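Q: Please design a sequence for this.
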């Protein structure tokens, strides 16, 4: 069975320097897809760049936390979801409609901070995907490889992943066979990617990443991922990474092709 890899950058539309890093990782590196934040400060810039890079798959990075009008923290988000103070479906449908109105046809969905690990949020994600004809939904949970400092959280995500895959399939939607990148967020280099490629399982894997450039907008943004985005951009565009992909016989793919 062939080994295929979608390399997906979260946070398209967050800031213009994040957008620039994502596009560079696509043009010069191994990045094949990204997910767009409808409520990001650099949304219009991301839409323009998506039009200029038609080979880049664009999905939706559905946001329930950390943006104006939404819960500030994950704990607040959980309280709002289970307390009925947040209409998750309406929020997500509005974000997808904004992206469609901008002329982008999304190929896949994921959530900021992986909030669809929560069953009510996953139900809303699947409903939105069905309604708007978006065929792919992320099921996060790193396959067993080099978890590092986030090993415990990765184990919880893998435990939840089985039920997520079942719910996605029951909704008539698709997800990748494997997922990786969570445990490495903010820390991976070309050396880690070189070790990852020969270890990829058979089938389709999604590698989540967060490349970017460190400009003034990112410096002032509410995120812990700043300098690490530059490091990830270097890793994704490094010649050694491309060589590792080719040596392992990995096929880089986009969701629209599958």
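A: Design:
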């Amino acid at each position: 069975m062939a080994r295929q890899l979608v390399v997906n950058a979260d946070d398209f539309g967050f800031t213009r320097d994040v957008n620039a890093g994502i596009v560079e990782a696509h043009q010069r590196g191994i990045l094949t897809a990204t997910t767009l934040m409808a409520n990001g400060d650099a949304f219009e810039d991301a839409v323009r760049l998506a039009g200029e890079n038609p080979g880049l798959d664009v999905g939706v990075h559905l946001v329930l936390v950390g943006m104006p009008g939404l819960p500030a923290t994950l704990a607040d988000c959980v309280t709002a979801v289970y307390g009925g103070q947040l209409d998750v479906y309406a929020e997500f449908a509005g974000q997808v409609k904004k992206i469609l109105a901008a002329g982008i046809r999304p190929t896949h969905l994921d959530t900021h901070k992986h909030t669809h690990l929560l069953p009510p949020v996953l139900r809303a994600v699947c409903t939105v995907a069905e309604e708007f004809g978006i065929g792919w939904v992320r099921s996060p949970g790193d396959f067993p490889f080099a978890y590092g400092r986030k090993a415990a959280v990765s184990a919880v995500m893998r435990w939840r992943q089985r039920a997520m895959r079942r719910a996605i399939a029951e909704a008539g939607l698709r997800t990748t066979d494997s997922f990786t990148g969570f445990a490495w967020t903010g820390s991976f280099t070309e050396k880690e990617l070189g070790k990852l490629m020969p270890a990829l399982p058979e089938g389709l894997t999604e590698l989540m990443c967060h490349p970017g450039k460190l400009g003034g907008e990112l410096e002032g943004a509410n995120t812990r991922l700043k300098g690490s985005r530059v490091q990830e951009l270097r890793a994704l565009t490094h010649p050694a990474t491309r060589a590792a992909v080719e040596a392992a016989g990995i096929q880089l793919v986009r969701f629209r092709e599958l």
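Q: Thanks. Anything notable?
A: The domain at 3-257 is CATH 3.20.20.370 (TIM Barrel). The two ends are 15 Å apart (CA to CA).
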